[in-house]
Amino acid sequence: MTMGSNVSLTALSENIGSAIVSLGWSSPTGEGDADVSVLLLDADGKVRSDADFYFYNNPVAADGSVQLLGKEPTGDGSEDRISFDLTAVPADVERIVVAASRYEGARFGELDDLKVTLADAVGESVLRFVIEDAGPVSAIIFGELYRRGEEWKFRAVGQGYESGLAGLATDFGVDIQDDEADIQDDEAESEAAVAEESSAAAPPDAPPQTTLEAVPAPRPPADEEAAPKKRTARPRTAKKRVTPAREPAKSLAENESWKQARLFPVSALKGDRDREMRATSVLLSVMAQVPRFGRRITAPFGAPSGRMETFTEVSLPHGDTPRRPDGVIRVERAGKLWTALVETKTNGNALKSEQVQAYMDIAARRGYEAVITLSNDVALEGSPLVDVKIDRRRKHQVALWHLSWAEVAHQAQMLIRHEGVGNAARTWLLQDLLHYLQHDNSGCHGFQNMGSAWVPVRNGIDDETLCQGDPRALEVVESWERLIRQVCLRLGGELGQKVLPAQRTRRGTDPGARRARLADQLCQEGRLHAELRVEGAPGLLTVSADLRTAKLRTSVEIPAPEHGYPLTWVKRLVRRLSEAPADLHVETLVDGQTGGPRGTLERLRPEPADLLPKDSATRITGFRLSLFKGMGSGRGNAESGFIRSVDDAVQRFHTSVVVHLDAPASGRATAKERTAV
User: Fold this and answer.
1) Which terminus of the chain has a lower count of CB atoms within 10 Å, N or C?
2) Which carries the bigger pLDDT value, residue 665 or residue 474?
3) From CA 252, how far away is CA 261, in angstroms rounded?
4) 459 neighbors 512 (Cβ within 8 angstroms)
C-alpha cells in the first residue's frame, strides 16, 4: 500500500473476523525500539473515555476486541503484534488508530524498515505498508481500521507527531495530566502496590523489582476530578517494568557440596520414558504459568493470544487402541479453542513417523489445529524430520510444526536475562526451567550428534576418496546447517541480540538444490562454511571448518573508514584490539588483489605500519580478523567433540574480538539521496 490508500478487508480475505496487525522496524545500532498504542474512536474522532487508550500498561480490552501481544523477533528486526477481534468491537466505535511512540528523545528517523502488515484469522498476510523517511518525529500513526457500512477497511496513514505520544493522545481526546506532584504521588502508590504483590508471590531469595521513572499519564474526566481523591487503576504511560538480571545472593550453604532445592529435580530420572514425561510436564506447566513465555513458544505456530491451559498423558481414541500424546496445549480466545497435540523426544531419540501420523489423523478428526513435535533435532527448511501423509480431501487441515529444545532454552534465556517478565515469581519459574533443560540428566540439550556419515566423510576427505554426489556428504551438510542454527540460538541468548544464519543465495532458490551444491563443494574443497549475522556487529561472522587440516577458522571482515589516512586506520584498529588474543590474525584487504599484508596481533602491536601495502597507491578496502582453533574429532557434543569445538570457537571469537570493534554506522540515506544513487 502507499500512503493515504485504503482497501476493504473482505476483498482481501474471507477470514477477516479477527486480524493481527504487526508494526515492524529495525535499528542500525541494535538498540532502537518503540512502543505501540491503539485508540478506539467514536463518530466524532475522539476516544469515548481514557479506557479506549491501549498501550503496554493497559494491553487488553475487557471485551477481547484489542490485545497487545508484545514483541517478536524477525529476520530483519523486530515487530510488535496486536490482535483485533473485529466482531467484538463496540458498535459506537467507528475507527481504530494504530500508532507507535519512542521515548527519551529518540526519533523514528533513527530506525529503518518501518512497516505495518495485517494478517487474517488464519495467519495469512494480506497487506503491507512501508513508511519511508519518518524524520524527526517521536510518534507515528501507522494506519487505521474504520467502518464502512457492514465491512471494515484499512487506511495507510504514516502521519508523524513531533510532540510524541502526548501530542498524539491529546489530538484524540485523551487528557494529559500536568500536575507533577500528583504524578509522583500516583507513581509512588503504583510502585508500592507492585512491590507488595511481588514480595507476596516471590520466593524468599527472589531478586527485588526495579521501577523506572514515569512520564505523565492520562488525567481523569472532569466529573471524576470533583469527586474525592480515590486512586483507581487506569492506564499509565510509564516505562516498562522488567525484572533485570541480578547477581546471585550469597549462599547460606554450610559447604559447596550442598545442592539447592529445585522445583524440577532431575536426580530421579532413570530411562528415556521418564525423561520425556518429566520434560513435557515441566515445559507445559511453565508455559501455562508464565503467559509471556507460553505466548512466545506458541505464537509462531498460529496460536491466538488468550487463556492457555496445558495437559499431559491425555488419552484419545484411535481405532482399537487409544493413543496418548505426551501433551496437549489449549488456548481460549473469544469463546473459541485452539488445540495442539505435543509429541516429545529427549536425548538422541528420533521422532517416529507412524506415531506422528496417528496424531495428525486424530487431530484432523477432532478439529484440532496443530501437532507440535519437540526433540533435540533442528528442523531445516524443505527437509522435514518426519514424513506424514496429509489427506487434502479433508475440509479441516492440521499443521505440523517442530520445535527444538535449544529453541525453548533460547526463549527462556531471552526473557530471563534481557527482556524480563515483570514478575519475580515468574522469573524464578523460568530460571528453574532453564536449569532443568541445561542439566546433564534432562536429555534436553539440543542438537548434539553429527550423524553416522560424519566419520566416513572425514576419512574420505583425508584420503581423497570422497566423490561428488555421495549422499553421505549431503547428510553432513544438513547436520552442519542444524549445528549453525543452534550456535545462533545460543549466542543470541547470551547477547540478547538477534543472531541469524546468512545464506548468500537468490530468493526462491530450492533449499535441496542449495545443499546439494554445498555437498559438492565439501567433496572438492574439504571445507564446511557458514556466515552469521550478529546484530550490532560490523560485518558477518564467518565460521569455516577445514576437514583436511582439522582446523576451525572464525573471522570477520570490517570495511575501511571512508575518511582519514591508512596509517591512522591501522593504529586505531590495533588500539581497539588491545585486549584481543595475541594469536589473532589481521589481514589487510586491498582493491583488486587476493590478499594484502598480514600478521598476528602480537607482532603488529609494536609495528602497526606493517599492515600497510608497500605501494602507497594501493587502495585498502578493509581488514579481515581471524582466529584459528583445533577441531574436535568426535561427532558428538563431548569435550573433544566437533559440535563443542564449533560452539566454543564462535563464543570465544565474539567475546574476545567482535565486542571490541565499532558497530556499523547508523546513518541512513534519505529518499532523495537513494534516488540520486
Assistant:
1) C
2) 474
3) 13
4) no
Q: How far apart are CA 456 and CA 466, in angstroms?
A: 9
Query: For the CA atoms of the chain, what is the radius of gyration?
Result: 28
In angstroms, rounded to a whole number, what is the distance separating the alpha carbons of residues 355 and 482? 23
Q: Are 37 and 53 in contact (CB under 8 A)?
A: yes
Distance separating alpha carbons of residues 192 and 198, to the nearest angstrom: 10
Rounded (10°) CA dihedral 305, 298, 407, 353? 180
Report d(CA 23, CA 45) in Å as an integer: 22
Which residue is associated with the grid cell 577441531? 631
In the block, cell 484432523 appears at: 364
128's grid cell: 503491507
DSSP, res 238: B
Instruction: Please tell me what DSSP assigns to residue 672.
Output: H
- The Cα 10–Cα 20 span in angstroms is 15
Task: Please give the average per-residue pLDDT across 8-28, as a whole number.
Answer: 86
118-130 pLDDT tens trace: 988 877 889 999 9
The helix/strand/coil state of 528 is strand
Nearest C-alpha neighbor of 401 from the set 281, 307, 298, 485: 298
d(CA 165, CA 139): 6
Distance of CA 287 to the CA centre of its chain: 17
What are the two backbone dihedrals, phi and then psi, of residue 617, each rounded to the nearest 5 degrees?
A: -80, -10
Contact partners, residue 260, CB within 8 Å, separation at least 6: 251, 253
- State the Cα–Cα distance between residues 331 and 312, nearest whole angstrom: 15
Residue with cell 495467519: 123
Q: 397, 59, 421: which is closest to 206 by C-alpha?
A: 421
Q: Look at 122-126, 429-433, 605-609 and tell me which has the smallest mean pLDDT.
A: 122-126
Higher pLDDT, 35 or 201: 35
pLDDT in tens, 516-539: 999 999 999 999 999 999 888 888
User: Ranked by mean pLDDT, which of 65-79, 366-380, 581-595 comes out on top?
Assistant: 366-380
Taking only the tens place, the pLDDT of each residue in 144-188 is 999 998 899 999 999 999 888 888 888 898 876 543 334 344 444
Phi/psi region, residue 234 (left: phi>0; alpha: psi -120 to 50; beta: rest), is beta
Q: Evaluate whether 146 touches 120 at the Cβ level (below 8 Å).
A: no
Backbone angles phi, psi at 484, to 5 degrees: -65, -40
Task: Copy the grid coordinates of residue 459.
Answer: 576419512
Amino acid code (one letter) for 225: E
* pLDDT at site 178: 44
How large is the average pLDDT for residues 619-643? 84
**What gap in Å lies between CA 313 and CA 496, rounded to an integer?**
35
Give dist(CA 594, CA 57) in Å, integer: 56
Start-to-end CA span in the chain (Å): 24
Least confident residue range of 99-103, 198-202, 326-330:
198-202
Q: What b-and-e string marks burial along 588-625, b requiring 16 or more CB atoms within 10 Å of the CB?
A: bbbeeeeebbbbebeebeeebeebbeeeeebebebbbb
User: Would you state the cell numbers that stand for residue 101, as one nine-digit string?
Assistant: 511512540
Alpha helices in 202-240 (DSSP H): 222-225
Report the distance separating Cα 529 and Cα 643, nearest Å.
14
* Three cell numbers written together for 400: 505440523
Strand partners, 552: 545, 629
CA distance 363 to 325: 11
Amino acid at 416: I
Strands of the sheet with 598-600, listed across from one edge: 499-502, 527-534, 541-546, 551-559, 620-630, 585-590, 598-600
Structure confidence at residue 338 (pLDDT):
93
